[in-house]
Amino acid sequence: MTCDPLEPSTGLLASAAEPVEAAAPRPQLARLVLLAISVVATVWLILLVHHAVLEVALVAVSGGACAALAVLEHRRPRLPVRIVAVAIGVIVLAAVVLPSRSSRDLWSYAMYGRMVAVHHVSPYDHVPADFPRDPFSRLVSTRWSHQSSVYGPAFSAAAAVDVAIAGDSQLGARLMFQGTAAAAAIGILCLVWRRTRSPVALLWLGLNPVTAVVVNGGHNDVFVALGLVGAAMLLVRGRVRNAGVVLGLAALVKITALLGLVGACFWLWRSGRRRAAASLAATAGGVIALGYLPVVTAATRVLGTANRTITDASPWNPLGDALLGHQAWRDVRSPLAANATLTTISMASTVLVLTLVVVLGWRTATARSPEPPVGTAVACYSMGAAYTFPWYSIWALPLFASRRPSAVAWIVWIQSLVVLAALKLPVHPTARVVEAVDRFALTMVAPVALLIAFVIAAMRAGRRHGAAAPVGA
What we know:
Number of strands: 0
Distance between the termini: 67 Å
Structural class: mainly alpha
Mean pLDDT: 89
Low-confidence stretches: 1-25
Number of helices: 20
């Protein structure tokens, strides 16, 4: 029998299909190259010591490769989850092994912990400069050496445990804070995988260079993120009181976790579970009150007098620069000094953030799961506050991680890279054209544009969600 040249499984079409099948592995090779580029650029980024345009470029390269992989893998999966996990593991390991380059916050953590474990005083009544003979005191940034702890009692206790284990070893203390941050980050990735079963969600979050910077800096923001993700998953299962306890503990690390509580309560309320919303708020509030009870007076005083500073990639930076001429706040000798203009801007930014939390949190609370309103609510801070750093983005990013990230998710993701890139700009501005363009784009244009895009995308997301489906008790 002769072969019909028009038969799909034989003849000319069959022979034409053979090269296509043989070429199928090529997209995977291309994606492996993208994966390698992202990993190498991120490790290189945390290796560098000096702020420079090169570091800004590395943020763009690492983030661009990660974004391209997420889009390609969503369209047609090619990378096995084990390869994605190995790549993330390499980045996390490097972030723990290498000294912190982007921030010295972990040394402030160490001093606050040593105040409790070694000096037996309250970190809310003392500052690192009070202990000049302590071997860790000189490691604290001069900007924060006269600042009492703005962190919650739960984190103060955890920091005391870390330094008690490390003793007087600076290496031991660094590894304790970086190691626990890495453990929390891995925990978040495990929860994201359990919720999504998507390699796209893992690489979208784990290959974002901000995640590596968070771990490398030992930032306690990763514990806030872990609490928010865990609480959202508990709410899906109907374990409201347990979620309230977890949210309360997250707020005892950083009080800003309360923004996530607002989003969670809105979701329960709009899902028809008003009693559950009240129960969640009461449980979280009880945990917070119990934790702060021994230190409420001093902690309230510290929080009330916290710094009034504008950071580089804040949407308020253009206004601050116009009024004060501070060059993205990089040529100010005493950035924490009292200033009526900064105080006014700080108060205005607080009003804006709270307004956004209420409006956008309520708008997105019609989603079928609590992650969108909780993520949107906490993202309002990093998007709209006068004082924001890239590690604040980690509060929201895990809540948005999915097989197909939403428009809101991508905006928050891009903003995290913009803030990181702005942080990596040279500390002392120069007249170089490339730097001037980067500085203008990252500190003047992008923050405002991203805030506007965030508001529009969140409002549209709420419209698409429609009425929330009631969830079972």
